[in-house]
Amino acid sequence: MNSTQSSGFVETLEHRRFAEFCGACGRYRYIGLCYGRPGVGKTLSARRCSRWDYFDNVNPNPYAIPDEPLAALIGVRTIFYTAPVVNTPRQIDHDIVRLRSRLRSLAKEPLRREAEQKLKQINIRDNRHTEEMFTTHDWLSEPMPKLKPTYAAISQKYAAKEKCIDDPTQLILVDEADRLKMASLEQMRAIFDAGGIGLVLIGMPGLEKRLARYAQFYSRIGFVHEFRPLNVPEMRRLLAQGWVPEGVTLPAISALDAETATAIIRVTGGNFRLLDRLLTQVERIMRINDLAQVTKDVVESARESLVIGPE
Q1: Are residues 140 and 276 in the same domain?
Q2: Is residue 38 located within the same domain as residue 135?
Q3: CA dihedral for 262, 267, 269, 272, sign (positive or negative)
Q4: Helices (DSSP H) in the chain: which residue ranges?
Q5: Cα–Cα–Cα angle for 241, 246, 251, rounded to 5 degrees
Q6: Which residue has the higher pLDDT, 303 or 255?
Q7: Through-space distance between the first and last CA atoms of the chain, rounded to whole angstroms
Q8: Residue 84 and residue 250: Cα distance in Å, rounded?
Q9: pTM beyond 0.85
């Protein structure tokens, strides 16, 4: 789901449904619950919605951010957080505060760069003015006139603007929410209650039943979303578009015969993670046997190398 032959993201129907669900949670400041089987694309979709692949690769020092990633992050209002295996309320709070601080720093960065350029121009102007005054100004009769706006005035102006920038976080996506114990869930509830933000918990099927036992938390859940595997038409469309895992090359994958495409769909059942592994195995088998075409037999041979869990 995170790559095609052109390294693009495949915006499937399930991803669009998930993005709409997250948008509603952020807009109405609700707690949302998303659950789905392993490998269907929950994490990839959440990272896409939050633009976290850009965010994660940004240097924590805001002054080191290159222009291209910064442009991709302008307007970001969502943070993506993966609950650690061992977690405490204090750690959860510390991690969320740190991520929100980074997002706020990114929100201030365009203003900082604008101020830096403006102050640089004023500094150049003042230096030139001083050089001119050395030859033309009567230093004994009166002090050298200062040009306006002054460096200090501009600096104060931008500092005031920066203080007016509020915390941009509108939504927190929490992946692997199954790992959160009761105390950590209560900490997430406290963050939600205090922050005026939306919150989405992402986990495995059964998470919704577990949370139903905690009335204080469950009563705040406004939306529930099941992230389902791809259906057959979307799987066929994906294969017709030539989707392959990143780093995998398959000849004429977009021109599969119906029997081979059906075999791939049957083996993977619409599961992206399984599709990724299957096509990787297909490439390996074709390379070992010097084959030029993906066939049903190749797919069946690749399937024998996979560990496929219960349906």
Answers
A1: no
A2: no
A3: negative
A4: 13-28, 42-50, 52-56, 67-73, 89-136, 151-163, 182-195, 207-211, 215-218, 232-240, 258-268, 272-288, 296-304
A5: 55
A6: 303
A7: 21
A8: 36
A9: no
| Domain hosting residue 295, numbered range | 232-304
**Token pair of 143, please?**
């002090």
Question: Is the distance from CB of 180 to CB of 91 less than 8 angstroms?
Answer: no
Query: Residue 61 corresponds to which tokens in the numbers above?
Result: 């020092």
pLDDT digits 0-9 by tens, 109-132? 888 889 999 999 999 998 888 877
User: For residue 305, what are its two tokens?
Assistant: 């190398």
Torsion of CA 248, 254, 260, 263, to 10 degrees: 70
Does 150 reside within a domain?
yes
Exposed, middle or buried, 152 (CB in 10 Å: 0-12/13-18/19+)? exposed
pLDDT tens per residue across span 201-243: 999 999 999 998 888 888 889 999 999 999 999 999 989 888 8
Measured in degrees and rounded to the nearest 5, phi and psi for residue 171 equal -150, 140
